[in-house]
Design brief:
- This protein has eight helices and seven strands.
- Strand 5 and strand 6 form a beta hairpin.
- It is globular.
- It is 38% helix and 12% strand.
- It has two domains: 53 residues, no CATH class; 166 residues, Transferase(Phosphotransferase) domain 1 (Transferase(Phosphotransferase), domain 1).
- Helix 3 packs antiparallel against helix 5.
- By secondary structure, the chain is of the alpha+beta class.
Length: 228
């Protein structure tokens, strides 16, 4: 078990917002029982701090795993597991909004679990804790609409998953630039990258996950598994 702790610091900008997002993380995922979502055991709240007791995932994160190289069968298996987890959270009205290799942890049995839902929000929520139009997340994995601060839905997470799948198979990110805004521009304007010939069988899937317009993408996480 591991404890994640946040202390609310008076007179620090966004301290209250960060504290509220931390508590929201527990609320969103504590009730979900899925093998590919981190298990939450308990929440403790004090006057100026909170902690979450959660599952300890002891085999590193997906970023480290990609660095060691991932073979094709494992990449596809990981893709299925992430898709299954996303389908489960979507079923209860949750977006992740910060899907990236650093938020995907591995167990010793080589299964994975999504973590860090602190940027997640309930779909159809009329008021958000974060300000409207404010950009959160990691530019390398942002959908075009998220990068431009537009309204997002589950198809934004599908886009992020497509970026991760490309990186798992090739070891490289599909879009690179010298600045965050440069990366955001490429997500919106650059063509979908091509897989090396040995992975050509997945090109159609990648095209459907990295389509620039949400309506042109796969419309649900379950469609990823159905396509495979």
């Amino acid at each position: 078990m591991i404890l994640k702790v946040l202390r609310q610091v008076p007179d620090v900008a966004d301290s209250i917002g960060a504290f509220d997002r931390f508590l929201q993380e527990y609320e969103l995922i504590a009730g979900i029982d899925h093998s590919n979502i981190v298990k939450i055991y308990d929440l403790g709240v004090g006057d100026d701090h909170a902690h979450i007791a959660m599952e300890y995932l002891d085999a590193g994160d997906m970023k480290q795993r990609i660095g060691r190289g991932i073979n094709e069968p494992d990449a596809v298996r990981y893709l299925r597991q992430i898709s299954s987890a996303l389908a489960r959270v979507y079923a209860v009205g949750i977006l992740h909004r910060d899907l990236k290799p650093g938020n995907i942890m591995l167990r010793r049995d080589d299964s994975l679990a999504l973590i860090d839902f602190g940027l997640a929000k309930r779909m159809r929520l009329e008021m958000e804790i974060t300000d409207s139009g404010e950009i959160f997340g990691t530019p390398y994995y942002m959908s075009p609409e998220q990068g431009h601060g537009n309204e997002i839905d589950l198809r934004s997470d599908i886009y992020s998953l497509g970026v991760i799948f490309f990186e798992m198979l090739t070891g490289t990110k599909p879009f690179r630039a010298e600045s965050a805004m440069g990366i955001i521009y490429l997500h919106a304007k650059a063509p979908v990258p091509l897989f090396p010939p040995r992975f050509a069988r997945y090109q159609a899937l990648l095209n459907m996950m990295l389509a620039k317009q949400p309506e042109d993408r796969l419309q649900s996480a379950t469609e990823v598994d159905e396509w495979l």
